[in-house]
Amino acid sequence: MKKTAPPLLAIALLSAAALAYQVLLLRLFAIVQWQHFAAMIISLALLGYAASGTFLVLSRRWLEGHFNVLFSANAILFGLSATACFLLVQQLPFNPPQLLWDADQSLYLALMYLCLALPFFFVANGIGLSFYRFRKASGKIYSADLVGAGIGAIGVLVLLLLFPPLSVLVYLSVLAILIGLLNLWRNLWFVSITLVLLTGSAIFLPAHLHFQISPYKSLSQTLQIRGSKQLQQASSPLGLLSVVASPQVPFRYAPGLSLNASQEPPPQLGIFNDGEGPIILTQYQGKPETLAYLDYLTSALPYHLRQQPKVLILGAGGGHDVLQAVYHQASAIDAVEANPQLIQLVKDDYGDFTGQLYQRPEVQLYLSSGRNFIQATQAHYDVIQLALVDDFGVANAGLSALNENYLYTQEALAQLLTRLKPDALLSITRWLKLPPRDALKLFATAVMALQQQGQQADLQLLLIRGWHTTTLLIKNGLFTSQDIQTVKDFCAERSFDIAYYPGISVQETNQYNMLQQPYFYQGAMALLSPQARQWQQAYKYAITPASDNQPYFLIFSNGVYCRN
Protein backbone atom coordinates (compact mmCIF):
# COMPACT_ATOMS: atom_id res chain seq x y z
CA MET A 1 0.00 0.00 0.00
CA LYS A 2 1.43 3.36 -1.03
CA LYS A 3 1.92 6.07 1.52
CA THR A 4 -0.31 9.07 1.14
CA ALA A 5 1.58 11.35 3.52
CA PRO A 6 5.29 12.21 3.57
CA PRO A 7 7.42 10.69 6.36
CA LEU A 8 8.01 14.06 8.03
CA LEU A 9 9.72 12.65 11.14
CA ALA A 10 12.13 10.58 9.04
CA ILE A 11 12.86 13.60 6.82
CA ALA A 12 13.55 15.81 9.84
CA LEU A 13 15.85 13.22 11.42
CA LEU A 14 17.70 12.62 8.15
CA SER A 15 18.18 16.34 7.66
CA ALA A 16 19.45 16.62 11.24
CA ALA A 17 21.97 13.83 10.59
CA ALA A 18 23.12 15.51 7.36
CA LEU A 19 23.73 18.94 8.95
CA ALA A 20 25.36 17.36 11.98
CA TYR A 21 27.65 15.39 9.65
CA GLN A 22 28.61 18.54 7.78
CA VAL A 23 29.49 20.39 10.99
CA LEU A 24 31.33 17.31 12.26
CA LEU A 25 33.46 17.17 9.11
CA LEU A 26 34.60 20.73 9.84
CA ARG A 27 35.88 19.48 13.19
CA LEU A 28 37.42 16.30 11.77
CA PHE A 29 39.32 18.11 9.03
CA ALA A 30 40.60 20.71 11.47
CA ILE A 31 42.13 17.79 13.39
CA VAL A 32 43.60 15.68 10.57
CA GLN A 33 44.70 18.61 8.35
CA TRP A 34 44.54 22.30 9.29
CA GLN A 35 41.75 24.68 10.18
CA HIS A 36 41.49 26.36 6.78
CA PHE A 37 40.94 23.02 4.98
CA ALA A 38 37.73 22.60 6.95
CA ALA A 39 36.14 25.35 4.84
CA MET A 40 36.04 23.06 1.81
CA ILE A 41 33.34 20.96 3.54
CA ILE A 42 30.74 23.51 2.42
CA SER A 43 31.71 22.99 -1.21
CA LEU A 44 31.66 19.22 -0.70
CA ALA A 45 28.09 19.37 0.56
CA LEU A 46 27.05 21.60 -2.34
CA LEU A 47 28.71 19.22 -4.82
CA GLY A 48 26.80 16.26 -3.39
CA TYR A 49 23.49 18.11 -3.40
CA ALA A 50 24.02 19.41 -6.94
CA ALA A 51 24.88 15.95 -8.26
CA SER A 52 21.76 14.59 -6.56
CA GLY A 53 19.57 17.26 -8.16
CA THR A 54 20.85 16.33 -11.62
CA PHE A 55 20.31 12.63 -10.91
CA LEU A 56 16.74 13.19 -9.71
CA VAL A 57 15.82 15.32 -12.72
CA LEU A 58 16.99 12.61 -15.10
CA SER A 59 15.31 9.68 -13.33
CA ARG A 60 12.50 11.07 -11.21
CA ARG A 61 9.64 9.26 -12.97
CA TRP A 62 11.01 5.82 -12.19
CA LEU A 63 12.14 6.88 -8.71
CA GLU A 64 8.74 8.22 -7.68
CA GLY A 65 7.19 4.79 -8.09
CA HIS A 66 9.61 3.25 -5.61
CA PHE A 67 9.74 6.05 -3.07
CA ASN A 68 9.53 4.05 0.15
CA VAL A 69 12.34 1.65 -0.74
CA LEU A 70 14.56 4.31 -2.29
CA PHE A 71 14.13 6.78 0.56
CA SER A 72 15.16 4.11 3.03
CA ALA A 73 18.00 2.90 0.82
CA ASN A 74 19.44 6.40 0.53
CA ALA A 75 19.23 6.91 4.28
CA ILE A 76 21.06 3.62 4.87
CA LEU A 77 23.67 4.41 2.21
CA PHE A 78 24.23 7.82 3.77
CA GLY A 79 24.83 6.19 7.14
CA LEU A 80 27.24 3.62 5.75
CA SER A 81 29.17 6.06 3.56
CA ALA A 82 29.43 8.80 6.21
CA THR A 83 31.90 6.79 8.26
CA ALA A 84 33.38 4.67 5.45
CA CYS A 85 34.22 7.60 3.19
CA PHE A 86 35.96 9.55 5.93
CA LEU A 87 38.04 6.52 6.89
CA LEU A 88 38.87 5.91 3.23
CA VAL A 89 39.95 9.51 2.67
CA GLN A 90 42.33 9.21 5.61
CA GLN A 91 44.23 6.54 3.69
CA LEU A 92 45.00 8.90 0.80
CA PRO A 93 48.61 10.22 0.90
CA PHE A 94 47.38 13.80 0.55
CA ASN A 95 49.92 16.45 1.52
CA PRO A 96 48.65 20.01 0.84
CA PRO A 97 52.03 21.77 0.40
CA GLN A 98 52.96 19.36 -2.39
CA LEU A 99 50.05 20.62 -4.50
CA LEU A 100 52.45 23.27 -5.82
CA TRP A 101 54.75 20.78 -7.55
CA ASP A 102 53.27 17.26 -7.39
CA ALA A 103 50.50 16.51 -9.93
CA ASP A 104 49.52 13.39 -7.97
CA GLN A 105 48.34 15.58 -5.09
CA SER A 106 45.71 17.17 -7.34
CA LEU A 107 44.44 13.67 -8.10
CA TYR A 108 44.27 12.84 -4.39
CA LEU A 109 42.39 16.08 -3.74
CA ALA A 110 39.88 15.23 -6.50
CA LEU A 111 39.39 11.74 -5.06
CA MET A 112 38.86 13.29 -1.62
CA TYR A 113 36.17 15.57 -3.00
CA LEU A 114 34.35 12.79 -4.84
CA CYS A 115 34.51 10.43 -1.90
CA LEU A 116 33.30 12.90 0.72
CA ALA A 117 30.58 14.27 -1.57
CA LEU A 118 29.04 10.80 -1.79
CA PRO A 119 27.24 10.85 1.62
CA PHE A 120 25.71 14.23 0.74
CA PHE A 121 24.58 12.78 -2.60
CA PHE A 122 22.67 10.02 -0.82
CA VAL A 123 21.03 12.24 1.79
CA ALA A 124 20.05 14.78 -0.88
CA ASN A 125 18.45 11.97 -2.89
CA GLY A 126 16.24 11.01 0.02
CA ILE A 127 15.09 14.54 0.82
CA GLY A 128 14.83 15.64 -2.82
CA LEU A 129 12.82 12.57 -3.74
CA SER A 130 10.36 13.47 -0.98
CA PHE A 131 9.67 16.79 -2.71
CA TYR A 132 9.00 15.00 -6.00
CA ARG A 133 6.77 12.33 -4.50
CA PHE A 134 4.71 14.65 -2.28
CA ARG A 135 4.51 17.86 -4.28
CA LYS A 136 1.34 19.09 -2.60
CA ALA A 137 2.97 18.78 0.82
CA SER A 138 6.20 20.54 -0.15
CA GLY A 139 5.67 23.21 2.52
CA LYS A 140 5.47 20.62 5.28
CA ILE A 141 8.51 18.78 3.90
CA TYR A 142 10.49 22.01 3.73
CA SER A 143 9.52 22.82 7.32
CA ALA A 144 10.56 19.37 8.50
CA ASP A 145 13.84 19.73 6.61
CA LEU A 146 14.62 23.12 8.18
CA VAL A 147 13.63 22.07 11.69
CA GLY A 148 15.76 18.95 11.39
CA ALA A 149 18.71 20.92 10.06
CA GLY A 150 18.52 23.32 12.99
CA ILE A 151 18.35 20.49 15.49
CA GLY A 152 21.30 18.76 13.81
CA ALA A 153 23.49 21.86 13.76
CA ILE A 154 22.93 22.46 17.48
CA GLY A 155 22.78 18.80 18.48
CA VAL A 156 26.21 17.96 17.07
CA LEU A 157 27.76 20.64 19.30
CA VAL A 158 26.15 18.98 22.31
CA LEU A 159 27.44 15.58 21.17
CA LEU A 160 30.95 16.98 20.73
CA LEU A 161 30.86 18.20 24.31
CA LEU A 162 30.00 14.69 25.49
CA PHE A 163 31.85 12.35 23.11
CA PRO A 164 35.03 12.22 20.98
CA PRO A 165 34.59 13.25 17.31
CA LEU A 166 35.02 9.74 15.89
CA SER A 167 32.36 8.41 18.26
CA VAL A 168 29.98 11.15 17.10
CA LEU A 169 30.70 10.11 13.51
CA VAL A 170 29.62 6.56 14.26
CA TYR A 171 26.52 7.74 16.15
CA LEU A 172 25.36 9.80 13.17
CA SER A 173 25.89 6.84 10.86
CA VAL A 174 23.88 4.62 13.18
CA LEU A 175 21.08 7.20 13.32
CA ALA A 176 20.83 7.38 9.52
CA ILE A 177 20.82 3.58 9.14
CA LEU A 178 18.15 3.30 11.83
CA ILE A 179 15.99 5.89 10.03
CA GLY A 180 16.18 3.88 6.81
CA LEU A 181 15.45 0.52 8.40
CA LEU A 182 12.56 1.74 10.52
CA ASN A 183 11.00 3.44 7.51
CA LEU A 184 10.84 0.05 5.79
CA TRP A 185 9.92 -2.25 8.65
CA ARG A 186 8.04 -1.27 11.78
CA ASN A 187 7.69 -4.70 13.37
CA LEU A 188 8.29 -4.50 17.12
CA TRP A 189 10.73 -7.43 17.17
CA PHE A 190 12.64 -6.04 14.21
CA VAL A 191 12.87 -2.63 15.84
CA SER A 192 14.14 -4.15 19.09
CA ILE A 193 16.80 -6.32 17.44
CA THR A 194 17.90 -3.46 15.21
CA LEU A 195 18.28 -1.12 18.16
CA VAL A 196 20.37 -3.68 20.07
CA LEU A 197 22.70 -4.34 17.11
CA LEU A 198 23.17 -0.72 16.21
CA THR A 199 23.67 0.31 19.83
CA GLY A 200 26.35 -2.35 20.17
CA SER A 201 28.07 -1.05 17.05
CA ALA A 202 27.94 2.52 18.35
CA ILE A 203 29.54 1.42 21.64
CA PHE A 204 32.32 -0.84 20.38
CA LEU A 205 33.21 0.46 16.90
CA PRO A 206 34.64 3.89 17.92
CA ALA A 207 37.32 2.18 20.02
CA HIS A 208 38.79 0.71 16.82
CA LEU A 209 38.83 3.98 14.87
CA HIS A 210 41.82 6.30 14.89
CA PHE A 211 42.81 9.62 13.35
CA GLN A 212 45.47 9.73 10.67
CA ILE A 213 46.76 13.19 11.57
CA SER A 214 49.02 14.91 9.06
CA PRO A 215 52.66 13.92 9.73
CA TYR A 216 53.57 17.59 9.37
CA LYS A 217 51.57 18.65 12.42
CA SER A 218 53.38 19.38 15.67
CA LEU A 219 51.74 16.48 17.52
CA SER A 220 52.79 13.93 14.90
CA GLN A 221 56.37 15.18 14.96
CA THR A 222 56.52 15.26 18.76
CA LEU A 223 55.29 11.67 19.07
CA GLN A 224 58.18 10.54 16.86
CA ILE A 225 60.66 11.68 19.54
CA ARG A 226 62.08 8.78 21.49
CA GLY A 227 60.26 8.26 24.77
CA SER A 228 57.38 10.65 24.06
CA LYS A 229 53.88 9.37 24.72
CA GLN A 230 50.33 10.62 24.71
CA LEU A 231 48.90 10.64 28.22
CA GLN A 232 45.33 11.82 27.67
CA GLN A 233 42.85 13.30 25.22
CA ALA A 234 39.99 15.70 25.87
CA SER A 235 37.54 16.77 23.20
CA SER A 236 35.09 19.62 22.72
CA PRO A 237 33.72 21.71 19.83
CA LEU A 238 36.69 24.02 20.42
CA GLY A 239 39.32 21.37 19.74
CA LEU A 240 40.83 17.97 20.43
CA LEU A 241 43.35 18.35 23.25
CA SER A 242 46.17 15.81 23.50
CA VAL A 243 48.46 15.77 26.55
CA VAL A 244 51.97 14.56 25.75
CA ALA A 245 54.97 13.78 27.95
CA SER A 246 58.48 13.71 26.53
CA PRO A 247 60.85 12.76 29.37
CA GLN A 248 63.93 11.93 27.25
CA VAL A 249 63.82 15.07 25.10
CA PRO A 250 61.89 17.35 27.48
CA PHE A 251 59.73 20.30 26.56
CA ARG A 252 61.53 23.59 27.20
CA TYR A 253 58.90 26.25 26.59
CA ALA A 254 60.19 29.70 27.47
CA PRO A 255 59.46 31.90 24.44
CA GLY A 256 62.30 34.32 23.77
CA LEU A 257 64.22 33.31 26.90
CA SER A 258 67.22 35.59 27.32
CA LEU A 259 70.57 34.05 26.45
CA ASN A 260 71.75 35.47 29.78
CA ALA A 261 69.35 33.26 31.75
CA SER A 262 71.14 30.79 34.02
CA GLN A 263 68.15 28.61 34.90
CA GLU A 264 66.11 26.27 32.73
CA PRO A 265 62.36 25.65 33.10
CA PRO A 266 61.04 22.92 35.43
CA PRO A 267 59.57 19.71 33.91
CA GLN A 268 56.77 20.46 31.45
CA LEU A 269 53.97 18.65 29.61
CA GLY A 270 52.69 19.66 26.19
CA ILE A 271 49.02 20.07 25.27
CA PHE A 272 48.31 20.00 21.54
CA ASN A 273 45.06 21.48 20.24
CA ASP A 274 43.96 19.71 17.03
CA GLY A 275 47.52 18.48 16.64
CA GLU A 276 49.11 21.93 16.89
CA GLY A 277 50.92 23.64 19.73
CA PRO A 278 52.06 22.94 22.27
CA ILE A 279 50.31 24.72 25.11
CA ILE A 280 52.56 24.07 28.09
CA LEU A 281 51.83 22.77 31.59
CA THR A 282 54.73 23.65 33.90
CA GLN A 283 55.40 21.72 37.08
CA TYR A 284 55.21 23.91 40.16
CA GLN A 285 55.75 22.66 43.69
CA GLY A 286 55.35 25.95 45.50
CA LYS A 287 59.00 27.03 45.27
CA PRO A 288 59.18 30.45 43.55
CA GLU A 289 62.89 30.08 42.83
CA THR A 290 62.12 27.34 40.28
CA LEU A 291 60.28 29.97 38.22
CA ALA A 292 63.15 32.46 38.06
CA TYR A 293 63.54 31.84 34.30
CA LEU A 294 60.19 33.62 33.78
CA ASP A 295 61.91 36.90 34.70
CA TYR A 296 64.17 36.52 31.66
CA LEU A 297 61.40 36.77 29.06
CA THR A 298 60.45 39.99 27.28
CA SER A 299 56.93 39.52 28.69
CA ALA A 300 58.31 40.10 32.22
CA LEU A 301 58.91 43.81 31.52
CA PRO A 302 55.59 45.21 32.90
CA TYR A 303 56.27 43.57 36.28
CA HIS A 304 59.42 45.69 36.62
CA LEU A 305 57.40 48.84 35.98
CA ARG A 306 54.52 48.00 38.33
CA GLN A 307 55.08 46.34 41.69
CA GLN A 308 52.57 43.77 43.00
CA PRO A 309 50.03 44.71 40.32
CA LYS A 310 46.47 43.62 39.86
CA VAL A 311 46.76 41.61 36.64
CA LEU A 312 44.38 40.46 33.92
CA ILE A 313 45.61 37.63 31.68
CA LEU A 314 43.62 36.98 28.50
CA GLY A 315 44.20 33.49 27.14
CA ALA A 316 45.45 31.82 30.31
CA GLY A 317 45.82 28.44 28.58
CA GLY A 318 48.10 26.10 30.50
CA GLY A 319 48.99 28.79 33.01
CA HIS A 320 52.38 29.97 31.74
CA ASP A 321 51.53 33.68 32.05
CA VAL A 322 49.71 33.07 35.33
CA LEU A 323 52.87 31.51 36.76
CA GLN A 324 54.83 34.55 35.59
CA ALA A 325 52.43 36.83 37.48
CA VAL A 326 52.65 34.56 40.56
CA TYR A 327 56.45 34.70 40.47
CA HIS A 328 56.36 38.51 40.33
CA GLN A 329 54.05 38.59 43.37
CA ALA A 330 50.98 40.03 41.68
CA SER A 331 48.43 41.01 44.30
CA ALA A 332 45.49 39.66 42.27
CA ILE A 333 45.32 37.72 39.02
CA ASP A 334 42.20 37.42 36.87
CA ALA A 335 42.83 34.60 34.36
CA VAL A 336 40.49 34.28 31.38
CA GLU A 337 40.29 31.12 29.26
CA ALA A 338 37.66 30.15 26.68
CA ASN A 339 38.19 26.37 26.52
CA PRO A 340 36.51 24.50 29.41
CA GLN A 341 38.36 21.25 28.61
CA LEU A 342 41.70 23.05 28.91
CA ILE A 343 40.63 24.53 32.24
CA GLN A 344 39.69 21.06 33.47
CA LEU A 345 43.07 19.65 32.46
CA VAL A 346 44.99 22.36 34.32
CA LYS A 347 42.69 22.62 37.32
CA ASP A 348 41.65 19.02 37.91
CA ASP A 349 43.44 16.36 35.89
CA TYR A 350 46.91 17.89 36.33
CA GLY A 351 46.20 20.06 39.35
CA ASP A 352 48.91 18.38 41.44
CA PHE A 353 51.44 18.80 38.62
CA THR A 354 50.74 22.53 38.29
CA GLY A 355 50.63 23.15 42.04
CA GLN A 356 46.87 23.80 41.99
CA LEU A 357 47.67 26.96 40.06
CA TYR A 358 44.06 27.92 39.33
CA GLN A 359 43.05 27.40 42.95
CA ARG A 360 45.58 29.78 44.48
CA PRO A 361 43.98 32.52 46.62
CA GLU A 362 45.22 35.36 44.40
CA VAL A 363 44.03 33.70 41.17
CA GLN A 364 40.45 34.10 39.95
CA LEU A 365 39.59 32.00 36.89
CA TYR A 366 36.93 32.99 34.33
CA LEU A 367 35.51 30.85 31.52
CA SER A 368 35.07 33.36 28.70
CA SER A 369 36.59 34.65 25.50
CA GLY A 370 38.89 37.61 26.06
CA ARG A 371 36.75 40.12 24.19
CA ASN A 372 33.53 39.08 25.89
CA PHE A 373 35.18 39.38 29.29
CA ILE A 374 36.45 42.87 28.55
CA GLN A 375 32.99 43.97 27.44
CA ALA A 376 31.33 42.51 30.54
CA THR A 377 33.74 43.45 33.34
CA GLN A 378 33.81 46.75 35.19
CA ALA A 379 37.14 46.01 36.87
CA HIS A 380 40.32 48.01 36.25
CA TYR A 381 43.85 46.63 36.26
CA ASP A 382 47.47 47.67 36.71
CA VAL A 383 48.63 45.23 34.01
CA ILE A 384 46.68 43.53 31.24
CA GLN A 385 48.61 40.74 29.55
CA LEU A 386 47.65 39.26 26.18
CA ALA A 387 49.11 35.77 26.28
CA LEU A 388 51.25 34.43 23.45
CA VAL A 389 48.89 31.60 22.55
CA ASP A 390 49.71 30.72 18.92
CA ASP A 391 52.38 28.28 17.86
CA PHE A 392 55.43 29.88 16.18
CA GLY A 393 55.64 27.32 13.38
CA VAL A 394 51.97 27.60 12.47
CA ALA A 395 51.96 31.39 12.67
CA ASN A 396 55.20 31.74 10.71
CA ALA A 397 53.95 29.42 7.96
CA GLY A 398 50.76 31.43 7.55
CA LEU A 399 48.51 28.50 8.54
CA SER A 400 46.51 30.71 10.92
CA ALA A 401 46.07 33.57 8.47
CA LEU A 402 42.35 32.94 8.00
CA ASN A 403 41.63 32.57 11.71
CA GLU A 404 39.64 35.44 13.16
CA ASN A 405 41.13 37.13 16.21
CA TYR A 406 39.10 39.84 17.89
CA LEU A 407 41.80 40.71 20.46
CA TYR A 408 44.22 42.25 17.97
CA THR A 409 41.90 44.75 16.33
CA GLN A 410 42.01 48.50 16.85
CA GLU A 411 38.56 48.38 18.49
CA ALA A 412 39.75 45.68 20.91
CA LEU A 413 42.83 47.67 21.94
CA ALA A 414 40.65 50.71 22.51
CA GLN A 415 38.38 48.66 24.80
CA LEU A 416 41.36 47.18 26.64
CA LEU A 417 42.68 50.67 27.35
CA THR A 418 39.41 51.53 29.10
CA ARG A 419 40.06 48.68 31.58
CA LEU A 420 43.42 50.12 32.66
CA LYS A 421 43.93 52.16 35.79
CA PRO A 422 45.75 55.51 35.39
CA ASP A 423 49.40 54.87 34.43
CA ALA A 424 48.65 51.13 34.02
CA LEU A 425 50.08 48.98 31.22
CA LEU A 426 48.73 46.82 28.41
CA SER A 427 51.39 44.26 27.48
CA ILE A 428 51.30 42.21 24.26
CA THR A 429 54.00 39.71 23.33
CA ARG A 430 54.39 38.32 19.81
CA TRP A 431 56.83 36.07 18.00
CA LEU A 432 59.65 37.94 16.29
CA LYS A 433 59.67 37.48 12.52
CA LEU A 434 61.98 38.86 9.89
CA PRO A 435 61.30 40.94 7.92
CA PRO A 436 59.16 42.48 10.70
CA ARG A 437 55.43 41.73 10.45
CA ASP A 438 53.55 41.02 13.68
CA ALA A 439 55.36 43.60 15.77
CA LEU A 440 54.87 46.44 13.28
CA LYS A 441 51.24 45.54 12.56
CA LEU A 442 50.55 45.51 16.29
CA PHE A 443 52.40 48.81 16.73
CA ALA A 444 50.35 50.36 13.89
CA THR A 445 47.15 49.07 15.51
CA ALA A 446 48.12 50.59 18.85
CA VAL A 447 48.96 53.93 17.22
CA MET A 448 45.55 53.95 15.52
CA ALA A 449 43.68 53.04 18.73
CA LEU A 450 45.42 55.79 20.71
CA GLN A 451 45.05 58.45 18.04
CA GLN A 452 41.33 57.74 17.66
CA GLN A 453 40.96 58.45 21.38
CA GLY A 454 42.85 61.72 21.05
CA GLN A 455 45.87 60.46 23.00
CA GLN A 456 49.59 60.92 22.36
CA ALA A 457 50.71 57.66 20.78
CA ASP A 458 54.37 58.69 20.51
CA LEU A 459 54.53 59.18 24.30
CA GLN A 460 52.52 56.12 25.35
CA LEU A 461 54.19 53.28 23.44
CA LEU A 462 57.27 51.21 24.15
CA LEU A 463 58.62 48.25 22.14
CA ILE A 464 61.42 45.83 23.04
CA ARG A 465 62.68 42.70 21.34
CA GLY A 466 64.70 39.64 22.23
CA TRP A 467 66.09 37.10 19.83
CA HIS A 468 62.70 35.38 19.35
CA THR A 469 59.91 37.59 20.77
CA THR A 470 58.80 41.20 20.92
CA THR A 471 56.80 42.88 23.67
CA LEU A 472 54.75 46.03 23.13
CA LEU A 473 53.69 48.15 26.11
CA ILE A 474 50.83 50.63 25.86
CA LYS A 475 50.53 52.93 28.86
CA ASN A 476 47.38 54.63 30.06
CA GLY A 477 49.43 57.77 30.56
CA LEU A 478 52.86 59.01 29.55
CA PHE A 479 56.09 57.09 30.05
CA THR A 480 58.29 58.91 32.54
CA SER A 481 62.06 59.17 32.59
CA GLN A 482 62.06 56.76 35.54
CA ASP A 483 60.03 54.24 33.51
CA ILE A 484 62.48 54.50 30.62
CA GLN A 485 65.50 54.00 32.89
CA THR A 486 63.87 50.88 34.35
CA VAL A 487 63.32 49.55 30.84
CA LYS A 488 66.95 50.26 29.91
CA ASP A 489 68.21 48.40 32.99
CA PHE A 490 65.84 45.48 32.35
CA CYS A 491 67.00 45.10 28.74
CA ALA A 492 70.70 45.57 29.47
CA GLU A 493 70.67 42.81 32.09
CA ARG A 494 68.97 40.40 29.65
CA SER A 495 70.55 41.52 26.37
CA PHE A 496 67.21 42.62 24.95
CA ASP A 497 67.05 45.44 22.42
CA ILE A 498 64.85 48.51 22.81
CA ALA A 499 63.14 49.24 19.51
CA TYR A 500 61.15 52.28 20.61
CA TYR A 501 60.55 54.52 23.59
CA PRO A 502 59.64 58.24 23.64
CA GLY A 503 62.79 60.14 22.74
CA ILE A 504 64.88 57.16 21.65
CA SER A 505 67.82 57.68 19.28
CA VAL A 506 68.95 55.22 16.62
CA GLN A 507 72.26 54.72 18.44
CA GLU A 508 70.39 53.09 21.35
CA THR A 509 68.88 50.37 19.16
CA ASN A 510 70.19 47.15 17.60
CA GLN A 511 72.87 46.56 20.24
CA TYR A 512 72.55 42.90 21.30
CA ASN A 513 70.56 40.80 18.83
CA MET A 514 71.98 42.70 15.91
CA LEU A 515 70.19 42.94 12.58
CA GLN A 516 71.54 44.32 9.32
CA GLN A 517 69.45 47.45 9.97
CA PRO A 518 67.44 48.58 13.03
CA TYR A 519 64.26 47.50 11.24
CA PHE A 520 61.95 47.63 14.23
CA TYR A 521 63.07 51.12 15.22
CA GLN A 522 62.72 52.31 11.63
CA GLY A 523 59.23 50.84 11.39
CA ALA A 524 58.08 52.33 14.68
CA MET A 525 59.32 55.79 13.73
CA ALA A 526 57.67 55.55 10.31
CA LEU A 527 54.34 54.48 11.84
CA LEU A 528 54.40 57.49 14.15
CA SER A 529 55.21 59.93 11.35
CA PRO A 530 52.69 61.97 9.33
CA GLN A 531 53.50 59.73 6.33
CA ALA A 532 52.51 56.54 8.21
CA ARG A 533 49.71 55.60 5.83
CA GLN A 534 51.86 55.90 2.71
CA TRP A 535 54.65 53.93 4.42
CA GLN A 536 52.24 51.13 5.35
CA GLN A 537 50.97 50.88 1.79
CA ALA A 538 54.51 50.70 0.40
CA TYR A 539 55.76 48.14 2.95
CA LYS A 540 56.48 44.62 1.72
CA TYR A 541 53.91 43.12 4.09
CA ALA A 542 50.34 44.13 4.88
CA ILE A 543 50.61 45.81 8.28
CA THR A 544 47.45 47.92 8.11
CA PRO A 545 45.65 47.61 11.49
CA ALA A 546 43.10 44.83 11.74
CA SER A 547 39.52 45.86 12.57
CA ASP A 548 36.40 44.13 13.84
CA ASN A 549 35.13 44.08 10.25
CA GLN A 550 38.36 42.38 9.09
CA PRO A 551 39.76 40.61 12.17
CA TYR A 552 42.55 38.75 10.36
CA PHE A 553 45.63 39.93 12.20
CA LEU A 554 47.86 37.23 10.71
CA ILE A 555 47.22 38.10 7.06
CA PHE A 556 50.40 39.82 5.92
CA SER A 557 50.31 39.32 2.16
CA ASN A 558 50.55 42.59 0.26
CA GLY A 559 49.25 42.47 -3.31
CA VAL A 560 51.90 44.92 -4.48
CA TYR A 561 54.68 42.46 -3.66
CA CYS A 562 52.96 39.11 -4.13
CA ARG A 563 54.65 38.67 -7.50
CA ASN A 564 58.16 39.25 -6.13
Automatic annotation (TrEMBL):
Keyword Membrane applies: yes
Keywords: Membrane, Transmembrane, Transmembrane helix
InterPro entries attached to this UniProt entry: SAM-dependent_MTases_sf
Protein origin, superkingdom: Bacteria
CDD domains xref list: AdoMet_MTases (cd02440)
Protein's name according to its UniProt entry: Spermidine synthase
TM annotation in the entry: 36-58, 70-89, 109-132, 144-162, 168-185, 190-211
Mitochondrion among keywords: no
